[in-house]
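Exercise 7. Predict the structure of UDP-N-acetylmuramoyl-tripeptide--D-alanyl-D-alanine ligase from Sedimentitalea arenosa.
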Amino acid sequence: MTLWTAAEAEKATGGRSTGDWSATGVSIDTRTLQPGDLFVALTAARDGHEFVAGALRTGAAAALVSRVPEGLPADAPLLLVPDVQAALEALGRAGRARTGARVVAVTGSVGKTSTKEMLARMLGDQGSAHASVASYNNHWGVPLTLARMPQETDFAVIEIGMNHPGEIAPLARMARPHVAMITTVAAAHLEAFESIEGIAVEKASILDGLEAGGTAILNADIAQSTILFDKARAVGAKAIGFGRKARDYRLRDVTVRGDATVARAEVDGQEVIFKIATAGQHFAMNGLGALAACAALGADPALAAISLGRWSPYKGRGVRERIVLDPVVGLALTLLDDSYNANPTSMSAALDVLAATPVESGRRIAILGDMKELGPDAEALHAALAELPAMDAIDRVYCVGPLMRALHAALPADKRAGWHAQSDDVPAALRGRLHGGDAVLVKASLSMNLGPVVDAIRKMGHAEHEPVTQDDE
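Solution. The predicted structure, encoded as tokens:
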């Protein structure tokens, strides 16, 4: 199905095409480019113009460029623009403008990607749904997602993130959501903000992009909730709270049973019970907010709750796997792969999940890497993890990275499994030390590169994956 013709892309970007072409997709990466994609030559770590020739050989329909790269044939299909990033943004705005989709935008210090995936599953069961891939939530990820959106889309789920002040509002105005959800506000990116209150103000700026008469789905439990609700009033949005303190979508209780989470909530005076196919009280909280967002978009709440029960996290976001060490005698360990991201709030939630994981005769083991971008209090925030109630139920803790040395020092001696400066040293340290019946959590900021540690644990046996969603802080 054609996504963009040369004429449509010219009109959207103000550019000039060197020929007539049509594209079925949009790509910024030749490693994942599919035949028929429009290749966008962004300049990031490397200049995308260097990859145009390869993209065209792979089957790209055309390339969006600001200059003609050397060595191309005279008839190479190109869309020439003054600035590639600006043109991608224009293409994204045009993609958003031409669709009648109901749009929800999601942000938050923790849980925005998993919540986006929940919404994609819930809405996708009730119509044609389009969502951000992986964590494509920044200055190129949001316009790319919008540019990829088919005109016939019924529901769109756009994830919006930030690292510095002033990033969210322009992306929200580009997405023009009918519903905006803020999962939570927590100590993340403190290097760029003076306080958590400053983070709350930035997160609340997603409401600046709401369409007229839009709805804000807001976490009512956090200390900074007043900032969020005040912003909703200021922009004229309908504010709906979710959480244990909320009046609208009130979370009554959460029970974690094995690999599932069951939540009981109250909505408009009626009891609502929903299930999520993974363990974690924090998933119940975000699931409740997602149910509120679905209702605000006009989706069927009962069907949305059924779909939510079929969702589970994907790789690196808390997915649970059973690693069979000896299939003959049935020895296996439980692996909790949460290696994609970390801050104090998400680390606490992950440790709660580990503490609640049944181990029978085994042990609960945490492999924890540095949490990045926490500012001058980073060491103290790492050390404070030792005081979390969940730590009482955890037997051994491996600490990885310079900042995690503070946690290693703060832990009781009997919980210290070792400290390692970098992730490369961890697989050898684990060899022969994980046993059948153990439950193992791996969590860190992405830059700590604990993915290979997860892979090393998988290679100790035969992984039996729990169901994961397909396609996103």
